[in-house]
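User: Reviewer 2 asked us to show a designed sequence for the structure in our supplementary figure. I'm pasting the structure tokens here. Could you produce the per-position amino acids so we can include them in the response letter?
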């Protein structure tokens, strides 16, 4: 029994859960290959140009799985994760979208989670996911769901302690829990706010973590926060929960904007994303009020790496200057400011 899972969209939020669930039931998971330029271009060729990049990438990953000979592909329709908390229309209608744009012979393992309209539970959602494999025993499904939560929770325990995303994912599926200790201090701390699929897909985010690391910047994401911290962030912005990723976007941003150790905030959003345009606007106003520098990076399949890097470098450079001038003021050597070179000031930080 094999199921294909596209390495896109919900993969970046829920793969530890899907892994724990399917593997407990003896279903082998076949992942699509990491995103490449080819994934983006074949995906883009099948949908209307206005579609956001993550959906184009998703279509490219389905094609990749079909090319690998996988004939059952998991395409969940995650409509609503809690009462009146919704995903965007593209994620909600994902199985229909895929059926309409990919005219090839394969089984869409389609299952719907809708906590708003149908008050449908997780077990029903999971039962539909394994029906095509002839698994209907609810006791087995509940047991597999327990294992899924275990892997998922282990993953989050690790990311919250500071273990990087990729390592935490690897350890979680190996059934290990590793806690990050003695973390290195960096001169600049930045919060990176985006959907998981815009952050952890290295082709889409153009390896932004590596780029910031090279600039001696420590990155904080929503994965390092607890739900309580994100709720606090959401409340501080006087914002209400509406979108499914509102905690990870608005909540995390609200929390980090108030966090004194964070020097600036970088957001990445897909061009044409409706939910993000609303959340980012609110976030930008709040950051302005709190005097926290914020950089918005918008991406589509045409985004060039050179422009992306220039904007990040300019932003980080500004953060260094801002921090340096704050320190110089603090130690009351304003009159001797000119004697310090940039490098010396960086050491001071
Ligand atoms: S939330 Fe935005 S980026 Fe994500 S699938 Fe929907 S429109 Fe696209």
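Assistant: Here is a per-position design you can include in the supplement:
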């Amino acid at each position: 029994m094999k199921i294909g899972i596209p390495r896109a969209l919900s993969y970046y939020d829920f793969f530890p859960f899907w892994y724990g669930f399917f593997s407990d039931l003896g279903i082998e998971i076949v992942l699509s290959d990491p995103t490449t330029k080819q994934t983006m271009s074949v995906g883009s060729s099948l949908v209307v140009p206005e579609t956001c990049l993550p959906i184009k990438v998703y279509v490219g990953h389905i094609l990749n799985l079909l090319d690998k000979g996988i004939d059952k592909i998991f395409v969940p329709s995650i409509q609503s994760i809690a009462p009146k908390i919704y995903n965007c229309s593209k994620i909600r209608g994902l199985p229909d979208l895929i059926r309409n744009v990919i005219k090839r012979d394969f089984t869409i393992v389609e299952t719907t989670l809708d906590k708003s309209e149908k008050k449908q539970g997780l077990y029903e959602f999971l039962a539909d996911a394994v029906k095509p494999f002839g698994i209907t025993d609810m006791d087995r499904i509940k047991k597999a769901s327990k294992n899924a939560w275990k892997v998922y929770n282990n993953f989050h325990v690790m990311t919250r302690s500071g273990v990087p995303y990729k390592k935490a994912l690897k350890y979680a599926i190996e059934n290990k829990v590793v806690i990050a200790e003695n973390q290195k201090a960096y001169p600049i701390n930045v919060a990176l706010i985006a959907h998981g699929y815009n952050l952890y897909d290295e082709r889409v985010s153009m390896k932004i973590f590596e780029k910031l690391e090279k600039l001696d910047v420590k990155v904080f994401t929503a994965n390092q926060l607890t739900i309580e911290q994100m709720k606090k962030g959401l409340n501080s912005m006087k914002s209400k929960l509406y979108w499914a990723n509102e905690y990870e976007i608005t909540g995390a941003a609200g929390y980090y904007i108030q966090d004194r150790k964070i020097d600036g905030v970088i957001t990445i959003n897909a061009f044409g994303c409706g939910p993000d345009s609303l959340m980012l606007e609110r976030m930008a106003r709040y950051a302005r009020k709190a005097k926290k520098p914020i950089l918005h990076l918008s991406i589509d399949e045409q985004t060039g790496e050179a422009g992306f890097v220039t904007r990040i470098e300019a932003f980080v450079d500004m953060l260094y200057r801002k921090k340096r001038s704050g320190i110089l003021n603090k130690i009351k050597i304003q009159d001797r400011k000119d004697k310090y070179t940039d490098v010396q000031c960086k050491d001071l930080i």
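For the response letter, you might also mention the following. The pocket of iron/sulfur cluster is lined by residues 52, 54-55, 88, 90-91, 195, 270, 273-276 (CB under 6 Å). The longest helix spans residues 305-330.
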